[in-house]
């Protein structure tokens, strides 16, 4: 392990590390050897380091590290910088600049999986780990400075100087007055996955016995064909599905529906607002050529069986593009319920058998931590004799309760309360996004409500499933069909303590490494206290038009790569003479797992202004 130490004063910290097994220490300081040699205990520590094979480099500027090391010697596994400071009475702005330049410099000499350790005095960092925490504007804003260089804060713990043998903290340039290390914190940073700009993607599916292709809505490009439910997956969503299936299989004869479920729908959904659907238009006359595809004009995606679509070939494509009239359009399935109903109509359901369907579904929705534009739904369908439906529902709910209780107890040991509540007792405003949309699809009779102790007081619980019954003469006049729909993503979040749905879709391998195949564990974030940036936007709404807030949020998702976490209406104004209406919104940018800099957030805000001007025809103010 190659360790780089920066800003050493008397080299006592370097001397304490030098004896570590299989560790090669490179200790540096800003001053020259002549300056350092006169400092207390410095000469003794330098001699000790050299005797043990450590490298010592003097006059090193921490903002230009690559200048001091040959390319083959730049791959440091760990970089330590204890109590950086510009010196004298430098304010927070100067020290932020120092940190920013240091992080950019460190990125050039750090190994891909390396760590950067920065120790700061209590309060300087500006994170909630500081006690007391300084106001953000009066701190060094360390997480924001690191984000500009592509780093995230992965751990923070007390800097215990008294446990480091022989260590003596010195002040700036080894002045007599040393830094106050009481309450000091060691901040550990790691590299972040980069924010990506995805190319347009073409998806190939089979629709009504015809091979078709369509352009995936840009906001969903990184969420298509992720394979969370494939057999070789170790994603927590897959584990929740398997555990539930096993639990229900102990109470019911069970059959997984292995037929191909259509990704695209075109039948009318009663009461569902069209603005909540991802519309796809089919245009047979516009077929992308193989040459266009090979030149990267679009990324081809073939859905696997686990994603409920068949692989298709490019021959015989029917192309689909967004933007045609609704009469010519299909939409991405917002629920598996229509798929289940189609199976019933084909007569493929066996009375008394529990049939299981699962797969991703897509819905436009407002931005919120637990509001998901795409998630994995699991639907159970069972036909039973009339008069026995209530007992069957209770058996289903009890099996679901037992499975979830077992999972949650294994993961956290905390209490979880699952209850069956009648839908009529809820107002629409009380429902979360999942429950509200399900209620639009068809009459919902019960909600499966889940409360977890780890949730804050303002988040008392969530609807994780819905139950409805139907009398279908196509099955039998003597049978009642029971449908149970579960949101697997929301269940995984609540069981594993994942506070943001976006984390489920991260490509960072540190997420899945926390979940060995078949196991659920309490999630530990690898990006702590991510910085957030607020931007306001105001505009005039087109005369005589209803403002589409769902479209507004969807555009924000797209241009920000899902880094907008909150959109709040902060002002509404009606011009007394012109009658025009003006709206002002506040957007909060924050990534739960990637480094997001202030500059990048500002660029996204400018792009957002341009997009809503063009697509929503608003007049910016």
Could you explain how this protein is built, in words?
Residues 528-621 form the FDX-ACB domain. It catalyses: tRNA(Phe) + L-phenylalanine + ATP = L-phenylalanyl-tRNA(Phe) + AMP + diphosphate + H(+). The structure is a single chain. With 621 residues, the chain is an alpha+beta fold. It has 14 helices and 25 strands. The protein has helices spanning 12-17, 33-37, 42-51, 92-107, 142-147, 236-249, 290-294, 337-345, 389-411, 433-441, 488-496, 509-512, 549-559, 598-615, and strands spanning 2-6, 24-28, 55-57, 76-82, 110-120, 151-158, 185-191, 201-207, 210-215, 254-256, 264-265, 279-283, 299-302, 319-321, 329-332, 354-362, 374-385, 416-422, 446-452, 462-470, 479-487, 533-540, 564-574, 581-589, 619-620. Helix 6 crosses helix 9, helix 6 crosses helix 11 (488-496) and helix 13 (549-559) packs across helix 14.
């Amino acid at each position: 392990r190659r360790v780089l130490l920066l800003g050493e004063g008397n080299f006592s910290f370097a001397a304490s590390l030098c004896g570590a097994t299989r560790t090669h220490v490179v200790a540096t300081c800003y001053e020259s050897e002549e300056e350092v040699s006169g400092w207390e205990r410095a000469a003794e520590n330098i001699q000790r380091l050299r005797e043990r094979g450590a490298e010592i480099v003097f006059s090193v500027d921490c903002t230009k590290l690559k200048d001091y090391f040959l390319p083959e010697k730049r791959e440091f596994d760990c970089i330590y910088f204890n109590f950086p400071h510009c010196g004298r009475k430098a304010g927070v702005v100067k020290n932020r600049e120092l940190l920013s330049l240091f992080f950019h410099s460190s990125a050039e000499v750090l190994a891909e999986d390396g760590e950067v350790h920065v120790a700061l005095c209590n309060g300087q960092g500006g994170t909630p780990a500081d006690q007391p925490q300084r106001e953000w504007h009066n701190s060094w804003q360390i997480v924001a400075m690191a984000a500009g260089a592509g780093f995230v804060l992965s751990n923070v713990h007390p800097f215990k100087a008294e446990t480091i043998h022989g260590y003596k903290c010195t002040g700036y340039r080894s002045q007599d007055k040393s830094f106050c290390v009481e309450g000091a914190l060691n901040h550990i940073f790691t590299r972040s996955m980069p924010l990506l700009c995805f190319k347009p993607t073409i998806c190939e599916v089979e629709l009504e016995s015809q091979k078709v292709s369509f352009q995936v809505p840009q906001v969903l490009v990184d969420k298509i064909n992720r394979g969370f439910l494939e057999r070789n997956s170790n994603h927590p969503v897959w584990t929740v599905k398997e555990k539930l299936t096993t639990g229900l299989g102990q109470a019911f004869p069970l059959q997984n529906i292995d037929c191909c479920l259509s990704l695209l729908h075109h039948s009318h959904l009663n009461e569902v607002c069209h603005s909540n659907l991802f519309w796809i238009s089919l245009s047979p006359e516009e077929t992308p050529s193989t040459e266009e595809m090979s030149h990267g004009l679009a990324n081809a995606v073939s859905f696997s069986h686990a994603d409920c679509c068949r692989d298709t070939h490019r021959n015989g494509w029917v192309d689909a593009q967004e933007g045609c009239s609704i009469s010519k359009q299909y939409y991405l399935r917002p629920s598996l319920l229509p798929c289940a109903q189609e199976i019933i109509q084909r007569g493929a359901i066996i009375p008394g058998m529990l049939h299981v369907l699962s797969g991703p579904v897509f819905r436009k929705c407002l931005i919120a931590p637990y509001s998901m534009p795409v998630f994995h739904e699991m639907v159970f369908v069972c036909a039973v004799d009339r008069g026995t439906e209530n007992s069957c529902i209770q058996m289903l709910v009890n099996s679901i309760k037992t499975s979830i209780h077992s999972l949650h107890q294994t993961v956290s040991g905390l209490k979880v309360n699952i209850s069956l509540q009648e839908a009529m007792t809820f107002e629409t405003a009380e429902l979360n996004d999942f429950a509200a949309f399900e209620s639009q699809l068809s009459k919902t009779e019960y909600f499966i409500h889940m409360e977890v102790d780890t949730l804050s007081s303002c988040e008392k619980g969530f609807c994780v499933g819905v139950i409805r019954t139907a009398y279908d003469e196509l099955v039998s006049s003597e049978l009642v069909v029971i449908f149970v729909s579960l949101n697997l993503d929301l269940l995984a979040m609540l069981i594993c303590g994942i506070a943001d749905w976006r984390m489920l879709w991260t490509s960072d391998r540190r997420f899945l490494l926390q979940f060995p195949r078949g196991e659920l564990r309490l999630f530990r974030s690898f990006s702590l206290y991510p910085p957030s940036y607020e931007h306001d936007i105001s505009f005039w709404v087109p005369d005589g038009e209803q403002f589409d807030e769902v479209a507004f949020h969807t555009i924000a998702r797209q241009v920000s790569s899902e880094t907008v976490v909150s959109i709040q209406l902060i002002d509404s104004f009606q011009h007394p003479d012109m009658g025009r209406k003006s709206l002002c919104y506040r957007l909060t940018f924050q990534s739960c797992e990637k480094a997001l800099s202030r500059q990048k957030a500002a660029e996204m805000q400018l792009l957002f202004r341009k997009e809503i001007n063009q697509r929503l025809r608003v007049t910016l103010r």
